[in-house]
Amino acid sequence: MKKYNLLEIKKAYKKLGIKKGMTVVVKTDIRFLGPYKSNNQNEILNDHFKALSDLIDLEKGTIVVSTASTSLCNTDIPFDLNKTKSEMGSLTEYIRNKKDTKRSFHPFNSYAAIGKNSSFICDYFNRHSVGPNTPEARLIDLDAKYLSIGLHPKETSTIIHHIEKTAGVPYRYIKEFSHPVVRGNKIIKEPFYLNVRYRQSKVKMDLGRKVYPHFKKNGYVVSSEKLGRGRVYLFSSREFYKSTLGLLEKDLYACLTNVPKIKPYKI
Hints:
267 residues; alpha+beta; 7-stranded mixed sheet; two-stranded antiparallel ribbon; 8 helices; 22% strand
């Protein structure tokens, strides 16, 4: 069985359109690409990082990953900005641990970034997971490109939750969590907020039903290239935001499989 290598990673990313100065948000499930030329996981992770950093030049561009730790919800496990591990895959944890990486402060929905715009993305403190001046909003300001490794973006587009908040979809509401966080040498309980779904509504997301067809209909493109046994994908956050927000203004349930039968938000 043929194994892919660093040169093929770099070639695929370059053909997608990744270039110097870009801000690239990486959504990843590397296992879907199949076997690599090395069995050493650190080498695999380093090669994906090296290919990206060489192409964008970290003095000009930025690599961003979600380092969410949602398992901390409804627990008393403190969030430590420097020690709490990312739950979003091995590559995100590898990038989080890079010397010059910055991380946003949110116990459940943090981001890590390395490169030119890392401070702009991560240093602004916000108790909300999505909405104005969160990392998601700032990534759209930068017109970051979303790179999905191994899975189609319809399976990985967490940017949709920021757009849902902006559009004011009725099946979500703001929930407050009082959660312990590490501040210096102390552990302090502080309020943080998530935009959660009404459990009673039993809604199911399906971005392949309307959202991505609408994106394509508007003339926008999800670029795709083969890599290993799988594929890698790239699209513009700003184009996706514009297209999907426009769709939700006409149909607030466009992200779902169907309109909820149970609407606890309805009077």
